[in-house]
Automatic annotation (TrEMBL):
It comes from Cohnella abietis. It comes from the Bacteria. It is a multi-pass membrane protein. InterPro entries: MetI-like, MetI-like_sf, UgpAE/MalFG_permease. It is found in: Cell membrane. One of its GO terms (biological process) is transmembrane transport. The chain crosses the membrane at residues 68-93, 105-126, 169-188, 209-230, 262-287. Keywords: Cell membrane, Membrane, Transmembrane, Transmembrane helix, Transport. It holds the Pfam family BPD_transp_1. GO terms for cellular component: plasma membrane. Residues 69-283 form the ABC transmembrane type-1 domain. The keyword Transmembrane helix applies. This is Protein lplB.
Length: 296
């Protein structure tokens, strides 16, 4: 009883967050019934006719559905791979630097884009990739022709994936640097006594001891396979690159808010949420089994 009274103020501190969760996340979930209705704004949820799974059937009959699912998975998977390998490589290289001030300066600089919104970063990317932008100036310097990157179905996914890695690899680097600090220095001292070079120390000590962190981040990333980044794509894409850049979230936005196909948009969003939920369960199970990571 005394224990519960001591914990009461902690539970009181949770109340504002729980209230916001209920208001903005739990109550709006009632709107998923629109996925099973021919929803009309004038009739509302209560009087719109029920059509069962017709919205889901219509979704799979659309020629666009295959494109948006392919684009979503393609972009998301390459983002996950890049955001795992680039921070790992950069953290190992940064850890090899001996200048403490320069090391922290570089770490801070690469971390800054993580805090910027995609509205700001998209403006920077647009300016850099115009025909007179920095990237095309470099292309011209090597004798190439200017490329309209944001209007090219060949280059647009590359821009999305590379810019996302640029934004997020600083944050991932900090996670790996934290893991590196947990490696016992005596292992490196013993390796030096045995005559191991720096590359050999990285290969036989650093990399094996970073494997658990890598596995943990990889398994937790599985839940994001259908999350290709609405903010980024919405701020960068245009009708010319729908073929290579249209993803589930942007399709739901256009179908629901622009074309007023509320039932179809809700069906697409509901299907994505269910699949993502299952992927999160799988990733949590794998993380618990292979990296001993548990929340509950």
């Amino acid at each position: 009883m005394k224990y519960r009274s001591n914990q009461a103020h902690y539970h009181m501190m949770l109340l504002p967050g729980l209230l916001l969760l209920v208001v903005f996340s739990i109550i709006p979930m009632a709107g998923i019934v629109m996925a099973f209705q021919d929803f009309k704004i004038g009739l509302g949820i209560w009087r719109s006719p029920w059509i069962g799974l017709q919205n889901f059937k219509y979704l799979f009959e659309l020629s666009d559905s295959r494109v948006i699912f392919y684009n979503t998975i393609f972009i998301a998977v390459f983002k996950i791979i890049g955001n795992l390998l680039v921070p790992l490589t950069f953290a190992i290289l940064l850890n090899e630097l001996r200048g403490r001030f320069f090391k922290r300066f570089v770490q801070t600089v690469v971390y800054v884009p993580h805090f910027l919104s995609w509205v700001i970063l998209s403006g920077i990317i647009v300016e850099m990739t115009t025909t007179d932008g920095l990237v095309n100036q470099i292309v011209k310097a090597f004798g190439g022709e200017p490329i309209i990157f944001l209007a090219s179905n060949q280059w647009f996914p590359v821009i999305l994936i590379s810019s996302d890695i640029w934004k997020e690899f600083g944050f991932g680097t900090i996670i790996y640097l934290a893991a590196l600090t947990g490696i016992n220095p005596s292992l490196y001292e013993a390796a030096v006594i045995d005559g191991a070079s720096r590359p050999q120390q990285i290969r036989y000590i650093t990399l094996p001891l970073l494997v658990p962190t890598f596995i943990l981040l990889a398994t937790l990333s599985i839940g994001n396979v259908l999350n290709a980044g609405f903010d980024q794509v919405f701020n960068l894409y245009n009708p010319l690159v729908y073929e290579s850049g249209d993803i589930i979230d942007t399709y739901v936005y256009r179908a629901g808010l622009i074309n007023a196909q509320f039932g179809l948009a809700t069906a697409v969003g509901l299907m994505k949420s269910v699949i993502s939920f299952l992927l999160i369960i799988v990733s949590y199970t794998l993380a618990s089994r292979f990296a001993n990571y548990r929340i509950f």
